[in-house]
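User: I'm curious whether this sequence folds into something compact or stays loose and floppy. Could you predict its structure so I can see for myself?
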Amino acid sequence: MGMDGRVVYAGFFASYQGTAMHLQAAIPILRIFSVEKARDFYLDFLGFTWDWEHRFEAGFPLYAQVHRDDLVLHLSEHHGDATPGSAVFVRMQGVDAFHAEVSAKGYAYMRPCVEEMPWGRVMAVIDPFGNRLSFCESQDQDQG
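Assistant: Here's the prediction. I'll summarize afterward.
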């Protein structure tokens, strides 16, 4: 790297000195194959809200965002964005209430249960695309 490169780097580095670094929550990207099935599962069954969607052109693969409370997920039909059969572990409070809510909906393809695990009470669901979401209420109230 020549002298000019070092000067540019030093200036770039200096501009960030004193700025505290802070990581924010990750947003998992889950592969989907059908927008209709994704809406049925994430909105109608799990109670998420559809925030936005994007396609480069009509007929192109969809990329969308859904959320519920502080949990944000990205759903993608793009084959390079994610691998089917991925897993997401979600820390939460009120897993029994969430279980009662989704059970009351009578979703034809999923009858989740709550399991007692060493790390907490877990309700796992598998979406129509093989992605597993495990909702866990920690026995430790701190959830950290």
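Summary: The helical segments are 3-16, 35-45, 95-104. Residues 3-137 form a domain with the 2,3-Dihydroxybiphenyl 1,2-Dioxygenase; domain 1 fold (CATH 3.10.180.10).
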